[in-house]
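so the lab meeting is tmrw and i was supposed to have these ready like two days ago... anyway. pasting both below. for each one the top line is the aa sequence and the line under it is the C-alpha coordinates. i havent really looked at them closely yet so no promises
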Amino acid sequence: MAVKTGIEQLAEKGLIEKIVPDPDEIQGLLAAADSCLTAARQSLKDNPVRSFAQAYDAIYEACCAFMKHQGYWMAGEPSHRIVLAFCRLTLDEKYVRILDAFEEAERRRHDDMYDGRFSMGGDEAQEMVKKARTLVRRLV
Protein backbone atom coordinates (compact mmCIF):
# COMPACT_ATOMS: atom_id res chain seq x y z
CA MET A 1 0.00 0.00 0.00
CA ALA A 2 1.47 3.35 -1.04
CA VAL A 3 1.95 6.10 1.49
CA LYS A 4 -0.26 9.10 0.68
CA THR A 5 1.24 12.55 0.33
CA GLY A 6 0.05 15.41 2.50
CA ILE A 7 -1.68 16.92 -0.52
CA GLU A 8 -3.52 13.65 -1.19
CA GLN A 9 -4.59 13.60 2.45
CA LEU A 10 -5.93 17.18 2.24
CA ALA A 11 -7.91 16.17 -0.86
CA GLU A 12 -9.20 12.99 0.76
CA LYS A 13 -10.45 15.02 3.73
CA GLY A 14 -12.37 17.23 1.30
CA LEU A 15 -10.29 20.32 2.13
CA ILE A 16 -8.82 20.86 -1.34
CA GLU A 17 -9.68 19.80 -4.86
CA LYS A 18 -8.03 19.79 -8.27
CA ILE A 19 -8.79 22.79 -10.48
CA VAL A 20 -7.81 24.07 -13.88
CA PRO A 21 -5.53 27.05 -13.17
CA ASP A 22 -6.81 30.39 -14.48
CA PRO A 23 -3.79 32.53 -15.45
CA ASP A 24 -5.77 35.79 -15.16
CA GLU A 25 -6.93 34.92 -11.66
CA ILE A 26 -3.40 33.95 -10.63
CA GLN A 27 -2.03 37.22 -12.03
CA GLY A 28 -4.70 39.13 -10.09
CA LEU A 29 -3.68 37.41 -6.85
CA LEU A 30 -0.01 38.14 -7.51
CA ALA A 31 -0.84 41.79 -8.22
CA ALA A 32 -2.76 41.94 -4.93
CA ALA A 33 0.25 40.42 -3.12
CA ASP A 34 2.53 43.03 -4.67
CA SER A 35 0.12 45.82 -3.71
CA CYS A 36 -0.05 44.59 -0.11
CA LEU A 37 3.74 44.40 0.03
CA THR A 38 4.04 47.97 -1.27
CA ALA A 39 1.53 49.16 1.34
CA ALA A 40 3.43 47.28 4.06
CA ARG A 41 6.68 49.03 3.15
CA GLN A 42 4.94 52.41 3.09
CA SER A 43 3.36 52.04 6.53
CA LEU A 44 6.47 50.71 8.31
CA LYS A 45 7.38 53.99 10.01
CA ASP A 46 3.90 55.21 10.95
CA ASN A 47 2.18 51.98 11.92
CA PRO A 48 4.30 48.83 12.34
CA VAL A 49 1.29 46.70 13.33
CA ARG A 50 -0.57 47.67 10.17
CA SER A 51 2.59 47.06 8.17
CA PHE A 52 2.79 43.54 9.58
CA ALA A 53 -0.88 42.88 8.74
CA GLN A 54 -0.32 44.08 5.18
CA ALA A 55 2.76 41.87 4.85
CA TYR A 56 0.71 38.92 6.13
CA ASP A 57 -1.95 39.69 3.52
CA ALA A 58 0.76 39.76 0.84
CA ILE A 59 1.90 36.30 1.86
CA TYR A 60 -1.66 34.97 1.86
CA GLU A 61 -2.41 36.36 -1.61
CA ALA A 62 0.85 34.93 -2.99
CA CYS A 63 0.15 31.56 -1.38
CA CYS A 64 -3.32 31.52 -2.93
CA ALA A 65 -1.78 32.25 -6.33
CA PHE A 66 0.81 29.50 -5.81
CA MET A 67 -1.83 26.96 -4.77
CA LYS A 68 -3.97 27.76 -7.81
CA HIS A 69 -0.92 27.63 -10.07
CA GLN A 70 -0.26 24.11 -8.75
CA GLY A 71 -3.80 23.17 -9.80
CA TYR A 72 -5.50 23.06 -6.41
CA TRP A 73 -7.99 25.15 -4.47
CA MET A 74 -10.03 24.86 -1.32
CA ALA A 75 -13.05 22.58 -1.62
CA GLY A 76 -15.05 24.29 1.09
CA GLU A 77 -15.02 27.49 3.05
CA PRO A 78 -11.92 29.62 2.34
CA SER A 79 -9.36 29.31 5.09
CA HIS A 80 -5.91 30.72 5.64
CA ARG A 81 -5.13 27.51 7.48
CA ILE A 82 -5.73 25.33 4.41
CA VAL A 83 -3.79 27.57 2.03
CA LEU A 84 -0.81 27.77 4.36
CA ALA A 85 -0.96 24.00 5.05
CA PHE A 86 -0.80 23.37 1.30
CA CYS A 87 2.20 25.68 0.96
CA ARG A 88 3.95 24.05 3.90
CA LEU A 89 3.66 20.72 2.08
CA THR A 90 5.10 22.02 -1.18
CA LEU A 91 7.70 24.66 -0.32
CA ASP A 92 11.31 24.30 0.80
CA GLU A 93 12.09 24.50 4.51
CA LYS A 94 13.43 28.06 4.21
CA TYR A 95 10.00 29.30 3.12
CA VAL A 96 8.14 27.12 5.61
CA ARG A 97 10.11 28.88 8.38
CA ILE A 98 8.87 32.23 7.03
CA LEU A 99 5.28 30.95 7.08
CA ASP A 100 5.78 29.71 10.64
CA ALA A 101 7.12 33.10 11.78
CA PHE A 102 4.11 34.88 10.29
CA GLU A 103 1.66 32.39 11.76
CA GLU A 104 3.16 32.84 15.21
CA ALA A 105 3.09 36.64 14.99
CA GLU A 106 -0.46 36.55 13.59
CA ARG A 107 -1.65 34.36 16.48
CA ARG A 108 -0.10 36.82 18.91
CA ARG A 109 -1.74 39.75 17.10
CA HIS A 110 -5.11 38.02 16.97
CA ASP A 111 -5.05 37.03 20.64
CA ASP A 112 -4.05 40.51 21.79
CA MET A 113 -5.73 42.89 19.34
CA TYR A 114 -9.03 43.10 21.19
CA ASP A 115 -7.22 43.94 24.42
CA GLY A 116 -5.16 46.64 22.75
CA ARG A 117 -2.01 44.92 23.99
CA PHE A 118 -0.40 43.89 20.71
CA SER A 119 2.46 46.03 19.72
CA MET A 120 5.10 45.42 17.16
CA GLY A 121 8.09 47.65 16.97
CA GLY A 122 9.48 49.04 13.77
CA ASP A 123 12.45 46.67 13.73
CA GLU A 124 10.26 43.57 14.06
CA ALA A 125 7.81 44.86 11.44
CA GLN A 126 10.66 45.66 9.08
CA GLU A 127 12.02 42.13 9.48
CA MET A 128 8.56 40.65 8.82
CA VAL A 129 8.14 42.78 5.68
CA LYS A 130 11.55 41.61 4.49
CA LYS A 131 10.54 37.97 5.09
CA ALA A 132 7.25 38.54 3.27
CA ARG A 133 9.10 39.97 0.29
CA THR A 134 11.39 36.92 0.21
CA LEU A 135 8.43 34.53 0.21
CA VAL A 136 6.34 36.52 -2.27
CA ARG A 137 9.29 36.71 -4.68
CA ARG A 138 9.70 32.93 -4.41
CA LEU A 139 6.04 32.37 -5.29
CA VAL A 140 5.91 34.80 -8.22
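ok protien two:
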Amino acid sequence: MTPMVFAKRKNGEKVVMGAALNERVWFFYSKEEQVGPMTESELRVAISEGTLKDSDYVYREGFPDWRVLGEVTELRQPPQSHLVSVPISEAPTAARRAPRAMIQELVVAHNDNNIATGHIKNISVSGLYLETEDAVFKMNDEVKLTLKEGKGLGKPMHLKAVVVRQARENGLHVGYGLELKGLDEASRARIVEYIKRHQSH
Protein backbone atom coordinates (compact mmCIF):
# COMPACT_ATOMS: atom_id res chain seq x y z
CA MET A 1 0.00 0.00 0.00
CA THR A 2 1.25 3.48 -0.83
CA PRO A 3 1.72 6.04 2.02
CA MET A 4 -1.04 8.22 3.54
CA VAL A 5 -0.69 11.78 4.83
CA PHE A 6 -2.33 12.96 8.02
CA ALA A 7 -2.52 16.69 8.66
CA LYS A 8 -2.64 17.81 12.27
CA ARG A 9 -4.31 21.15 12.95
CA LYS A 10 -3.15 23.45 15.74
CA ASN A 11 -6.05 22.35 17.97
CA GLY A 12 -4.72 18.79 17.80
CA GLU A 13 -7.48 17.45 15.54
CA LYS A 14 -6.12 14.97 13.03
CA VAL A 15 -7.69 14.78 9.57
CA VAL A 16 -7.00 12.28 6.80
CA MET A 17 -6.83 13.77 3.32
CA GLY A 18 -6.01 12.25 -0.06
CA ALA A 19 -3.06 14.58 -0.44
CA ALA A 20 -2.42 16.73 2.63
CA LEU A 21 -4.67 19.17 4.43
CA ASN A 22 -3.68 22.79 3.86
CA GLU A 23 -0.82 21.83 1.53
CA ARG A 24 -0.72 23.85 -1.66
CA VAL A 25 -1.13 22.09 -4.98
CA TRP A 26 1.99 22.34 -7.17
CA PHE A 27 3.08 21.55 -10.71
CA PHE A 28 6.53 21.46 -12.27
CA TYR A 29 7.82 21.58 -15.84
CA SER A 30 11.07 19.79 -16.62
CA LYS A 31 12.53 18.08 -19.72
CA GLU A 32 9.53 19.18 -21.82
CA GLU A 33 7.12 17.44 -19.43
CA GLN A 34 4.55 19.01 -17.12
CA VAL A 35 3.91 17.02 -13.93
CA GLY A 36 1.18 17.52 -11.31
CA PRO A 37 -0.96 18.17 -9.42
CA MET A 38 1.15 17.23 -6.39
CA THR A 39 1.59 18.31 -2.80
CA GLU A 40 4.47 20.49 -1.67
CA SER A 41 5.91 17.43 0.10
CA GLU A 42 6.00 15.49 -3.17
CA LEU A 43 7.57 18.45 -4.95
CA ARG A 44 10.26 18.70 -2.27
CA VAL A 45 11.05 15.00 -2.75
CA ALA A 46 11.47 15.59 -6.49
CA ILE A 47 13.81 18.51 -5.72
CA SER A 48 15.84 16.53 -3.17
CA GLU A 49 16.21 13.59 -5.58
CA GLY A 50 17.58 15.89 -8.26
CA THR A 51 14.60 15.48 -10.59
CA LEU A 52 14.39 19.27 -10.82
CA LYS A 53 17.09 21.81 -11.49
CA ASP A 54 17.06 25.44 -10.34
CA SER A 55 16.42 26.42 -13.95
CA ASP A 56 13.22 24.31 -14.19
CA TYR A 57 9.79 25.85 -13.69
CA VAL A 58 7.18 25.42 -10.94
CA TYR A 59 3.64 26.70 -10.49
CA ARG A 60 1.01 26.84 -7.75
CA GLU A 61 -2.23 28.74 -7.26
CA GLY A 62 -1.43 32.33 -6.38
CA PHE A 63 1.47 32.58 -8.84
CA PRO A 64 0.64 34.86 -11.81
CA ASP A 65 2.67 32.54 -14.05
CA TRP A 66 5.27 29.75 -13.96
CA ARG A 67 8.37 30.65 -11.93
CA VAL A 68 11.97 29.49 -12.09
CA LEU A 69 12.55 27.06 -9.21
CA GLY A 70 15.73 28.80 -8.10
CA GLU A 71 13.75 32.01 -7.47
CA VAL A 72 11.03 30.41 -5.29
CA THR A 73 12.32 31.11 -1.78
CA GLU A 74 9.50 29.23 0.01
CA LEU A 75 10.81 25.96 -1.40
CA ARG A 76 14.24 26.68 0.08
CA GLN A 77 12.76 26.84 3.58
CA PRO A 78 11.78 23.86 5.80
CA PRO A 79 8.17 22.66 5.33
CA GLN A 80 5.52 23.85 7.79
CA SER A 81 5.84 21.85 11.01
CA HIS A 82 2.09 21.35 11.58
CA LEU A 83 1.95 18.77 8.78
CA VAL A 84 2.84 15.23 9.83
CA SER A 85 3.47 12.54 7.21
CA VAL A 86 2.48 8.91 7.66
CA PRO A 87 1.53 6.20 5.06
CA ILE A 88 -1.39 7.10 2.50
CA SER A 89 -2.99 6.43 -0.87
CA GLU A 90 -2.02 8.46 -3.87
CA ALA A 91 -2.56 8.52 -7.60
CA PRO A 92 -0.63 6.17 -9.88
CA THR A 93 2.58 7.78 -11.15
CA ALA A 94 1.67 7.10 -14.77
CA ALA A 95 -1.59 9.01 -14.42
CA ARG A 96 0.15 12.04 -12.92
CA ARG A 97 2.81 12.11 -15.64
CA ALA A 98 0.54 12.26 -18.68
CA PRO A 99 0.93 15.53 -20.65
CA ARG A 100 -1.38 18.17 -19.15
CA ALA A 101 -2.54 21.67 -19.93
CA MET A 102 -4.09 24.37 -17.78
CA ILE A 103 -7.79 24.95 -18.41
CA GLN A 104 -10.68 26.88 -16.84
CA GLU A 105 -13.79 24.83 -17.52
CA LEU A 106 -17.08 24.89 -15.59
CA VAL A 107 -18.05 21.39 -14.43
CA VAL A 108 -20.66 19.54 -12.37
CA ALA A 109 -19.37 16.40 -10.62
CA HIS A 110 -21.89 13.96 -9.17
CA ASN A 111 -22.65 10.39 -8.16
CA ASP A 112 -25.61 8.69 -6.48
CA ASN A 113 -24.94 10.45 -3.17
CA ASN A 114 -23.38 13.85 -3.80
CA ILE A 115 -23.00 16.71 -6.26
CA ALA A 116 -20.37 19.42 -6.55
CA THR A 117 -19.94 22.35 -8.91
CA GLY A 118 -16.60 23.92 -9.68
CA HIS A 119 -13.92 24.37 -12.32
CA ILE A 120 -11.44 22.06 -13.96
CA LYS A 121 -8.00 23.64 -13.55
CA ASN A 122 -5.91 21.24 -15.67
CA ILE A 123 -6.59 18.20 -17.83
CA SER A 124 -4.90 15.24 -19.54
CA VAL A 125 -6.19 12.08 -21.22
CA SER A 126 -5.58 10.22 -17.95
CA GLY A 127 -7.08 12.68 -15.47
CA LEU A 128 -7.95 16.20 -14.40
CA TYR A 129 -7.92 18.48 -11.38
CA LEU A 130 -11.25 19.80 -10.08
CA GLU A 131 -11.46 22.77 -7.72
CA THR A 132 -14.72 23.28 -5.81
CA GLU A 133 -16.18 24.65 -2.58
CA ASP A 134 -18.18 21.43 -2.17
CA ALA A 135 -16.08 18.96 -0.13
CA VAL A 136 -18.41 16.00 -0.67
CA PHE A 137 -16.30 13.23 -2.22
CA LYS A 138 -13.89 10.73 -0.67
CA MET A 139 -10.88 8.84 -1.98
CA ASN A 140 -11.85 6.17 -4.54
CA ASP A 141 -15.35 7.61 -5.07
CA GLU A 142 -16.59 7.16 -8.63
CA VAL A 143 -18.01 10.36 -10.12
CA LYS A 144 -19.60 11.52 -13.35
CA LEU A 145 -18.52 14.85 -14.81
CA THR A 146 -20.60 17.16 -16.94
CA LEU A 147 -18.64 19.95 -18.61
CA LYS A 148 -21.55 22.31 -19.04
CA GLU A 149 -20.01 24.67 -21.56
CA GLY A 150 -17.03 22.80 -22.95
CA LYS A 151 -15.66 26.01 -24.43
CA GLY A 152 -12.01 25.05 -24.32
CA LEU A 153 -12.69 21.50 -25.49
CA GLY A 154 -15.03 22.39 -28.33
CA LYS A 155 -18.38 21.42 -26.84
CA PRO A 156 -19.99 20.09 -23.62
CA MET A 157 -18.66 16.70 -22.51
CA HIS A 158 -19.66 13.86 -20.18
CA LEU A 159 -16.84 11.97 -18.45
CA LYS A 160 -16.41 9.29 -15.78
CA ALA A 161 -13.65 9.37 -13.17
CA VAL A 162 -12.39 8.14 -9.79
CA VAL A 163 -11.09 10.35 -6.96
CA VAL A 164 -7.37 9.56 -6.54
CA ARG A 165 -6.13 12.73 -4.82
CA GLN A 166 -7.59 15.32 -2.48
CA ALA A 167 -6.27 18.60 -1.05
CA ARG A 168 -7.68 21.53 0.91
CA GLU A 169 -6.20 25.01 1.18
CA ASN A 170 -7.09 27.55 3.87
CA GLY A 171 -10.55 26.01 4.26
CA LEU A 172 -11.77 27.95 1.21
CA HIS A 173 -11.98 25.19 -1.35
CA VAL A 174 -11.12 21.58 -1.98
CA GLY A 175 -9.24 20.15 -4.92
CA TYR A 176 -9.82 16.69 -6.34
CA GLY A 177 -7.41 14.82 -8.55
CA LEU A 178 -9.60 12.63 -10.74
CA GLU A 179 -8.46 9.69 -12.85
CA LEU A 180 -10.55 9.36 -16.00
CA LYS A 181 -12.18 6.00 -16.76
CA GLY A 182 -13.60 4.65 -20.02
CA LEU A 183 -12.68 7.73 -22.05
CA ASP A 184 -14.28 7.46 -25.49
CA GLU A 185 -12.23 8.19 -28.61
CA ALA A 186 -14.03 11.43 -29.49
CA SER A 187 -13.44 12.88 -26.02
CA ARG A 188 -9.83 11.66 -26.01
CA ALA A 189 -9.20 13.32 -29.38
CA ARG A 190 -10.60 16.66 -28.17
CA ILE A 191 -8.48 16.55 -25.00
CA VAL A 192 -5.33 15.66 -26.95
CA GLU A 193 -5.95 18.49 -29.39
CA TYR A 194 -6.53 20.97 -26.55
CA ILE A 195 -3.28 19.92 -24.84
CA LYS A 196 -1.32 20.31 -28.09
CA ARG A 197 -2.60 23.86 -28.39
CA HIS A 198 -2.24 24.91 -24.74
CA GLN A 199 0.46 22.89 -22.97
CA SER A 200 3.13 25.13 -21.42
CA HIS A 201 6.53 25.18 -23.11
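from a quick look at the 2nd one: The two ends are 35 Å apart (CA to CA). The domain at 93-198 is CATH 2.40.10.220 (Thrombin, subunit H). will dig more after coffe
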